[in-house]
Amino acid sequence: TPIVRANNSELSFLLLFSLTLCFLLGDNEQLALQMDGDVLIGGFFPLHYLASELQHSYQSKPQVPPCSGFDHRAFRWMMTMAFAVEEINNKSSLLPGVKLGYRLLDSCDNVHSSLRALLSLLTFSESADDETPRCLSGSPIPVSYFATCTCLNDKQVYPSFLRTVPSDLFQVGGLVQLVTFLGWQWVGTIGTTDDYSQYGIQEFSNHFRSSGGCVAFHLTIPKSPTAAEIQDMADILQISTANVVVVFAAEGQLWDLFLELSRRKVTGIQWVASEAWVTAGLLTFPNFHDLLEGTLGFSFPGVNIPGLKEFLLNVRPSPEPGMEYINMFWEEQFGCQLRFDLNPVCTGSEDLSLTSSSYTDVSRVRISYNVYKAVFAIAHSLHNLLNCGSAGINEGIIFKKFPFNVFCVPTGSTECIKCPDSYWSDKDKVKCVAGVEEFLSFSETMGIVLVLLTLLGVVLTAIITAIFHRFRTTPIVKANNSEISFLLLLSLKLCFLCSLVFIGQPSVWTCMLRQAAFGISFVICLSCLLVKTVVVLLAFRANVPSSGGLKLFGPTQQRTMIFCTTTPQICLCVGWLLGAPPFPVRNPTYQIVLECKEPWPLGFYLLLSYIGLLAFVCLLLAFLGRKLPDTFNEAKLITFSMLIFWAVWICFIPAYISSPGKFSVAVEIFAILASSFGLLLCIFVPKCYIILLHPERNIRKGMTGKYK
């Protein structure tokens, strides 16, 4: 079966011939990730995208060419297949009594390496008591998760070829429409020597010319380009008058050319990418930002596979045979070496959840989903075969998948299709219509009410601040360190204002700022209250009014205490945002809800727990001072405010968990506003009442309980 790269008819003939006269020449064992089963599914994945071309003398045994350039995204594809197989094996309704196994190999994105891996895969299937390899009965059935080449449409040549992605005919049509719609009639093309590129460029050029466009030049990147060839291609791109370039290639094949163009600081080229590299990590490299900025292309829509994230994060290295690929990934991911001895450089217990790479980014997977669909397509085919009364399944049958490309295919209403993300089926169930996105908006009634309450809180806080500043020399303001009172008022303003970040369409910066602003503002507020409570206890509990207890806890010590109690929360928030920051997502489980996803939920609960700890200490100390002189007892006010604070947040947790969609955001905002109003009104309104309405009590005797 010639599906290694679909670019060499002689290779196809030799492979079919070797299946008829199958025998093993020397040691053909290759590294593989495998799991035993009743039915074996083989898989090829381009874990490395650079393979050396060796010159064979045909006088000695050929050496295996080394591969380099580990691809984290391709390793995710490989582990997705392992995940799909395990998921199928755990389903009692699919293939009951039959266990699927797999053998996954590295194709190195190279024809010769792929053929070597294929032969290794075929000769691997042998009976336990045979010492020589046994050939498979019939040709293996390839199911591609990545092959979009138009050459594979010919069922006369490739009768058994199946794929979970559409042909490039659809992509080419879309690219031609895109280019002509934008008025680009003079473009260049770049491709490689494989069939994916050659057929794609050929179809694009034909359709483009028929639409009135002209191809200025075509460049072909060799399999192993020399420095001189790369420089010649870079020269053509620099001197050409065509500023639009259509590229059909994989990211690894473009690396050397882009490095040379980046070195020359070439800009001004509008790149139009095939789906093979339009979503690749290459576009995010800082060195290529100026060169590749504004690249356009089509991509398969991303989806979320439940359970895949947890499966990928549970991968661990091991010195056991068959774990070599996982060990390679681990060393590449953490930039270290595994030793598995007394002094390892890598421990193997590093936390993948704290890393950021194309392996761990599964919020919207594309090719991984095609792998997932391919495995399930095989499983359902086998299930149907068993249900049809088949005498059994030959344990040597191998279903292979090979690395090619992806693209979204338009289909008619006569087929049953799944609507893309953010789309729903219409009432007649014949087409997909855009869904309505839901989030807590500034323009809706609930959002307006929350904004008005927020502004009311800010205005009240500002008025109280102005009153305190006007009467800052009076005893009631000077008591208990007026500096702490002003800091408390400032933190309450921040508490009110932070609720505004929760309203509106979520974005990257609002998602990161929401919980951090809330957590730090409230901790500053509670730290000030804690200091006030301590000062009250020291002032009234001392045996002698001028005792040394209060002197030991002067303004400097009070500032230090506020700093020390606030710093842990700041460190927690910074670590959370750097390690696993929240990000906006579309949640289709309840309409289409735009919300902030927290990849590390423990961070939010730690933030709440620290706030709760400070509130509990404040409540405990204030409760101890409840029987102090009654003329003006701030400890009583703090006790009452903390009781309100605790009541609000105890009610918040179950309401937050049970509220769907945007209502969970509204619940958190209500909790923030209610607790902020409780603190503001309980602590400062009684003082303003004395300052404005009973100034005769705003004297030193009135503050010490001696006023009558």
Automatic annotation (TrEMBL):
Residue ranges occupied by any G-protein coupled receptors family 3 profile domain in the UniProt entry: 1-24, 446-707
Keyword annotations from UniProtKB, A to Z: Cell membrane, G-protein coupled receptor, Glycoprotein, Membrane, Receptor, Signal, Transducer, Transmembrane, Transmembrane helix
Transmembrane regions: 446-468, 484-504, 516-540, 561-583, 603-625, 637-657, 669-693
The keyword Glycoprotein is assigned to this record: yes
Subcellular location: Cell membrane
GO molecular function: G protein-coupled receptor activity
SUPFAM superfamilies: Periplasmic binding protein-like I (SSF53822)
Superkingdom of source: Eukaryota
Keyword Metal-binding: no
Pfam families recorded: 7tm_3, ANF_receptor
Gene3D superfamilies recorded: 3.40.50.2300
GO cellular component, one term: plasma membrane
Protein's membrane topology: Multi-pass membrane protein
InterPro entries in the cross-refs: ANF_lig-bd_rcpt (IPR001828), GPCR_3 (IPR000337), GPCR_3_C (IPR017978), GPCR_3_Ca_sens_rcpt-rel (IPR000068), GPCR_3_CS (IPR017979), Peripla_BP_I (IPR028082)
Secretion signal, residue range per the UniProt entry: 1-26
Name of the featured protein: Olfactory receptor C family, u1
Lineage: Eukaryota, Metazoa, Chordata, Craniata, Vertebrata
